[in-house]
Amino acid sequence: MIGYAEADLPARLARQVTELEARVWPGSAPGHDPALHPRTMLLVDAAGTVTAALSLLYKPVPLADRTYRAAGLSSVVALPELRGRGLGGRLVAAARAELAADPAVDLALFSCDRPLAPFYGAAGFAPLPGTVLVGGTPEDPLATDAPGFDKVVMAAFFTDDPAGDREAFTGVRVPLHPGSVDRLW
């Protein structure tokens, strides 16, 4: 596993990530909003091929009279021909461990399609029942409970009071608002 600030990702690896994402999500735009301090994590095989990738995005999130330092997982992808071999799970677990060790991060918070919740659960993230992430911007929001979405909000808490903070984030609408580039992470 290797990681880079997205802006420092070597061109050869960046090109592979872009091609991989385009294969899995045709029409997707590469890269993330620099204001979210994107960090790219990769699994690369011995031949130098990116086999799995994800991005970590960072942003303060105000909730319950406090501002939390949040990180989110975005663009989690593995080579389609290598799916089912545990690459994505290893990468997601490594991302969680990195976030847990970062004293500047209070929690990891993101949404995923409902069928993927067990995948993220196996890496140490837990669903937040009834929680809705409100992405986009305050003027142009995009919520995880929008019509046609079947999303689950997942989290891991790295604070001094993880149970209390989990309670604060359960069953509420969280004003994530990452902007117009990364409307949800």
Automatic annotation (TrEMBL):
Gene3D superfamilies: 3.40.630.30. Transmembrane segments: none annotated. Pfam families: Acetyltransf_1 (PF00583). Residues 37-125 form the N-acetyltransferase domain. InterPro entries: Acyl_CoA_acyltransferase, GNAT_dom. It comes from the Bacteria. Coiled coil: none annotated. This is N-acetyltransferase domain-containing protein. The lineage of its organism: Bacteria, Bacillati, Actinomycetota, Actinomycetes, Kitasatosporales.
